[in-house]
Design goal:
CATH class of the largest domain: Alpha Beta
CATH topology of the largest domain: Rossmann fold
CATH architecture of the largest domain: 3-Layer(aba) Sandwich
Helix content: 25-40%
Order of helices and strands: EHEHEHEHEEHEHEHEHEEHEHH
Shape: globular
Strand content: 15-25%
Number of helices: 11
Number of strands: 12
Largest sheet: 6 strands, mixed
Distance between the termini: 23 Å
Number of domains: 2
CATH superfamily of the largest domain: NAD(P)-binding Rossmann-like Domain
Strand order of the largest sheet: 2-1-3-5-6-4
Structural class: alpha/beta
Length: about 280
């Protein structure tokens, strides 16, 4: 089934540099089609310095919504007229929505991660979480976990100063020295890898961000890497009897939040995930 594009079709964009690799068009176009929405998503290159002009497309209603990838997230946060609380805290925007003649910036990454946990049957409220890594993804996840009612967050990064900075995004988060990673894993209910360790590597021989012998059957182990879907970390977690949440869950759920913000319709996340899996299979086999 395909959709006929007409002059009345609403357009959304994903912008960034590079952007050709983005799964967003596959995700969103599948959601639009399943919900019978007269929308289409296209990818547009957005080099450094183009953020303000791209936001103007939304402000002028030439574009119904915009997904933002690197390197434009901080730049777009400055260019929009209003920020939601997460975007304001992170100083980063991944979603732009028309808003009363202006443009509103949102950050759906962290909330998408929490939604993926909950959809997998793991509510983080009241739990202790270990977050490995301190980059932009880590900060959005820490911010969202802090709002989701977790009891404690330990942040570990190879550069401790990065962990200290990332831990500032939630009041219950604490930076832990890298040599204390084993202890942090032992005392956590949920372990989250936000680094690129394991990306593009075969699960059988790939690298893991922590000693996999630390994994227990009562752990929930999440990895934001989605190529491959089962990283070495997740494969080891399965072997230990632990529950796992792969990186595609965060990607799909953050995109679902974007779609709802633009269209007012809650999309079918199962359709979006199937589209993302099909696209990954077409690219990587």
């Amino acid at each position: 089934m395909s959709r006929r594009i007409t002059a009345s079709t609403r357009m959304s964009l994903v912008v960034g540099d590079p952007v050709r690799h983005s799964l967003s068009p596959a995700l969103h176009n599948a959601a639009y089609l399943a919900a019978d929405l007269d929308w289409v998503m296209l990818a547009m290159p957005g080099p450094v310095g183009s953020g303000a002009s791209l936001v103007d497309l939304v402000r002028r209603h030439e574009v119904g919504g915009m997904a933002v990838t690197m390197p434009l997230k901080p730049e777009v946060a400055v260019a929009v007229d209003v920020l939601d609380p997460a975007a304001a805290a992170l100083r980063s925007v991944n979603t732009v929505v028309p808003d009363a003649g202006g443009a509103r910036g949102m950050s759906t990454d962290g909330d998408g991660f929490v939604a993926s946990l909950r959809a997998s049957g793991h509510d983080p409220a009241g739990t202790s979480v270990l977050v490995i890594g301190a980059g932009a993804a880590s900060r959005s996840i820490i911010d969202a976990l802090g709002r989701a009612g977790v009891r404690a967050i330990a942040v570990v990064n190879r550069t401790h100063s990065g962990a200290v900075e990332a831990a500032q995004f939630a009041p219950m988060a604490l930076a832990v020295e890298h040599d204390q990673l084993d202890g942090a894993a032992a005392s956590s209910n949920i372990i989250v890898n936000t680094t690129s360790v394991g990306m593009g590597q075969d699960a059988a021989g790939g690298a893991s961000p922590l000693d996999v012998t630390l994994l227990r059957a009562d752990h929930v182990v999440a990895d934001i890497v989605y190529h491959p879907l089962q990283t070495a970390l997740l494969a080891a977690a399965v072997s230990a009897g632990a529950a796992t949440v792969d990186g595609l869950g965060m990607l799909v759920h953050q995109a679902a939040l974007q779609c709802e913000a633009w269209t007012g319709v809650t999309p079918d996340v199962s359709v979006m995930r199937a589209a993302a899996e099909a696209e990954l299979l077409a690219r990587h086999g």
